[in-house]
Amino acid sequence: MSDTHSFEDLLKAEDNAPIVPVKTVKADVGTAPVDREALVRARRLAEKGNDLDFGGFSTQEPPMIAADALLEWTREGFGRLKTQFDRDRFNPDYRLDLHGRTVEQSAMEVHRMLERARRYRWQRLQIVHGIGRRSAEGKPLLKSYVNRWLREVDDIIAFASARKRDGGHGAVNVLTRGAISDRWPEA
Predict the structure, then answer these.
(1) DSSP state string for 1-45
(2) For the chain, does the N or the C end have fewer beta carbons within 10 angstroms?
(3) Residue 98 DSSP SS3
(4) In Å, how far from its chain's centre is CA 165?
(5) 36 versus 79: which is more confidently predicted?
(6) Cβ atoms 173, 124 nearer than 8 A
(7) 18 phi and psi, to 5 degrees?
(8) Which DSSP helix (H) or strand (E) runs through 58?
(9) What is the pLDDT of residues 113-138, one digit of tens each?
(10) What pLDDT, on a 0 to 100 scale, did the predictor assign at position 42?
């Protein structure tokens, strides 16, 4: 007699075998830790209708700006300062690179940078926001947000897209009230 069975023999044996339900094994993994910060953010999100406040900056999506569009803005009464962007190479006191960050992370980083700018009286800042090549939507999200955020800050008196050699459409040069120290408010 052979130890091997034919396929037909195995099927016959299977037909005669009792059907036994499979037991479900549940592992006890405990309860998930509560992220209190996430709960607070979620509550604020629900209260504000998808518009969280990160460092005073809204994360509600602004109107999109084209990737190749030049940014340029001057606070009323400071038009003469625009020439500082045109004249010579812009040497920032501080440079912030937002590549790879989310909108929320970027808002917090820009907020921190502006707090430091005020504390240390930095006059010239540069924010590298990119042009959206790696964003999920393929849009220049951070460029659009940075454009809106900078306009909302009283300490910013002018900004413009960087020259090509300094980052071009993917970076913005910023002048703060530190450039005119007689009007810089006390910290």
Answers:
(1) --S---HHHHHHHHHHSPP-PPPPP-----PPPP-HHHHHHHHHH
(2) N
(3) coil
(4) 24
(5) 79
(6) yes
(7) -70, 145
(8) strand 57-58
(9) 998 988 888 989 999 998 888 777 77
(10) 56
Q: Write the CB contacts of 134 (distance below 8 Å, at least 6 apart in sequence).
A: 99, 100
Q: Can you read off the two tokens belonging to residue 135?
A: 């964003």
Residue listed under structure tokens 């998930």: 32
Percent of residues in the chain assigned helix, strand, coil, to nearest 5: 40, 15, 45
List, edge to edge, every strand of the sheet that includes 94-97.
72-74, 156-161, 171-176, 124-128, 94-97
User: If you search the block for the tokens 């897209």, which residue do you land on?
Assistant: 161
Per DSSP, the three-state class of 78 is coil
Structure tokens at 105: 């992370």
Two structure tokens written together for 49: 């209708």
* Adjacent-strand bridge partners of 159: 73, 174
What's the whole-number mean pLDDT along residues 38-67?
66
